[in-house]
Amino acid sequence: MGSVPSIKDVLGELKKESYIPLLSKLIGEAEFVQNNPPDLIPEEDKIVNHVLDVLNPFSIDNGGSLIIKQVNYADKRGNLIIEYPGTVSGKVISFVGSHMDVVPANRDTWEFDPFSLSIDGDKLRGRGTTDCLGHVTLLTELLKKIAETKLKLKSSVVVIFIASEENNLIPGIGVEQLYADGYFNHLKGGPLYWVDAADSQPCIGTGGSIPWSIKTTGKLFHSGMPNKAINALELAMDALKPIQLNFYEDFPADSRESDYGFETPSTMKPTQWSYPGGGLNQIPGESTIAGDVRLTPFYEVKDVVAKIQAYADDINANVEDLESRGPVSKYTLPEEGIRGRIDVTFGEPISGIACDVHSLGFQILSNATMEVIGYVKPFSITGSLPLVRELQNEGYDVQTIGYGLTDTYHADNEYCNFSDMANGYKVFASIISQLEEVC
Predict the structure, then answer these.
(1) Confidence check: pLDDT of 163 > 70
(2) DSSP-derived secondary structure letter, 278
(3) What does the pLDDT average to over 330-337?
């Protein structure tokens, strides 16, 4: 009698003739899942429908084994939960976080059409190939193969594709709401792999993200009489500098950052500046400067928010002492009882994660990576992922991984390599196989 084929043998390799056509369909929808409200509202159902076309033939409703649930919190904006049931109650492995929206792309600045898959040797080119439609396709192919071969697994395999990851200006649509509604409750029984990273190595640390906006209010006046104005643009520049200096003093590099391989410490920087408009000969009375904090996971986002608010309060209380830029650049008009002021607001923060590198989930991922890639070199970035810290705090064994390319994340001319995605398929097959051997 021949030996029983292993799980890895049964799952085999990622089939290019199957992967490429599905990815082509998803990239063809990328234009309609760009996420930048209010101008661009994605319709993730366009991606959901293509995934369902592949997986529905294997659903329990059609005599198969996949339990498929679509969850929409807004019209045309679905999340998708797929489960291949195992034989042991409570034993589970999950692949979560691959999202069905993308960041915007401008055709005029790309060397090829961002909304149509093109192939250049090993390169698969188009918006979403790395982040994150390439991973949606990869996991869909994995589920299809598991269902086709009717693998008998002790562990349930759960995949969750999510909506609204790239922009959270419209809350209550994506993964946070799924978690709040209990869709993650049964995933504690095994490792949870967040599949939205890059470079085929364990990403053991991510950053927190705190969007901030500082509105400065002065007094609009003729530029020929600056002594009667409070220049909101100058106030923004002079207020932001001490805020940043205080931030870097209060949140310096942490010694653990080098252990985790972070390339940068926590940062606070402006990325946008706006004002209401007006003539060149008008000193503006209002402006808004905005940006973000990227925070290594060894600090708490709530502490940063409180500190920045305190910096702003101190500036408002002592605005006359703020360093200015010339003999008539000033931020009070005592004779008129007018004081310049700043008002800081914050967007929805995300907390970073330092993954547990002593956990079962990391050990299995590390073994699989060594087996397939040939080496293990974990890294950390101050890019941000939603929900991961909250899940870790609740006892989930969260690990992050991905098979796109960091250099093309959110960039023009985005691409991934088919060979990397094929390796990812093998890593996932090895993870499933290893977990079967754990009692």
Answers:
(1) yes
(2) -
(3) 96
Which residues are catalytically annotated?
101, 165
Structural element, H or E, at residue 415: strand 415-417
In the predicted model, what is the mean pLDDT of residues 58-66? 97
Phi-psi region of 411 (alpha: psi -120 to 50; beta: other; left: phi over 0): beta
C-alpha of 72 from chain center: 20
Would you say 44 and 164 are in contact if contact means Cβ atoms under 8 Å apart?
A: yes
- How crowded is residue 426: how many other Cβ atoms within 10 Å of its Cβ? 18
Q: Same domain for 199 and 244?
A: no
Residue at 1 is within a domain: no
- Residues in a beta bridge with 381: none
Query: Which band of pLDDT confidence, cut at 50, 70 and 90, is reported for residue 1?
Result: very low
Residue 166 and residue 160 in contact, taking contact as beta carbons nearer than 8 Å: no
Secondary structure class of 412 (helix, strand, coil) = coil
Q: Quick check: is 2 in a domain? A: no
Residue 341 parent element (H or E): strand 341-346
Report the share of the chain in percent with pLDDT over 70. Answer: 99
415 and 292 both lie in a single domain: no
The SS3 assignment for 263 reads coil
Pairing outcome for strands 332-333 and 221-222: unpaired
Question: Strand 203-206 to strand 379-380: parallel, antiparallel, or no bridges (unpaired)?
Answer: parallel
Three-class SS of residue 328? coil
Residue 419 corresponds to which amino acid? S
pLDDT tens-digit profile of 113-159? 999 999 999 999 999 999 999 999 999 999 999 999 999 999 999 99
Q: Average pLDDT, whole number, for the chain? A: 96
Closest CA to 231 of 214, 244, 216: 216
Interior CA angle at 418 toward 416 and 424, to 5°?
95
Q: What is the widest separation between alpha-carbon atoms in the chain?
A: 100
What CATH number has the domain bearing residue 333?
3.30.70.360
Contact 372/423 with Cβ under 8 angstroms?
yes
Closest CA to 356 of 383, 384, 392: 392
User: What does pTM read for this prediction?
Assistant: 0.91
CA nearest neighbour of 352 among 328, 322, 376, 388: 388
Cα gap 422→375, rounded to integer Å: 16
